[in-house]
């Protein structure tokens, strides 16, 4: 991992009971962010992400995973839903576009 500096932003990724905080290069394309996140998930959760506690259930991270990015419709209120981000064809846009 590279050094965190002013060109990095903190982002939060949600899935089930998991919240992953990650510093990403604001100028890198979303494809690089996706690859970094998937690498982290596969390393940290080799048997899969917990999607249900009772009964226990895990979902493995597939090798051909597709991710959707979004922002909260109302900041600090996830119950109000999410707005999907347009990341461009082949995720070429970066988080600042």
What are the defining features of this structure?
alpha+beta; 97 residues; two-stranded antiparallel ribbon; 6 strands; globular; single chain
Short description:
The protein has 97 residues and is of the alpha+beta class. The chain has one helix at 30-44; strands spanning 8-15, 18-25, 49-52, 57-59, 70-72, 82-84.
What summary fits the major beta sheet? 2 strands, antiparallel
Spatial gap, N to C terminus: 23 Å
Helix content: 10-25%
Order of helices and strands: EEHEEEE
User: DSSP helix count?
Assistant: 1
Helix/strand class? alpha+beta
In round numbers, the mean pLDDT is 86
Give the strand content.
Answer: 25-35%
Shape: globular
Domains counted in the coordinates: how many?
Answer: 1
Q: What strand order characterises the main sheet?
A: 1-2
Alpha-carbon Rg, integer: 14 Å
Tell how many strands the DSSP assignment holds: 6
Low-confidence stretches: none
Model description:
The chain has one helix at 30-44, and strands at residues 8-15, 18-25, 49-52, 57-59, 70-72, 82-84. It is α+β, with helices and mostly antiparallel strands and 97 residues long. The chain has one domain (8-91). The strands form three sheets. A two-stranded antiparallel ribbon has the order 1-2. A hairpin with a 2-residue loop joins strand 1 and strand 2 (18-25). It is globular, with a radius of gyration of 14 Å.
Topology, please?
Blueprint: E1 8-15, E2 18-25, H1 30-44, E3 49-52, E4 57-59, E5 70-72, E6 82-84
Antiparallel strand pairs: 1-2, 3-4, 5-6
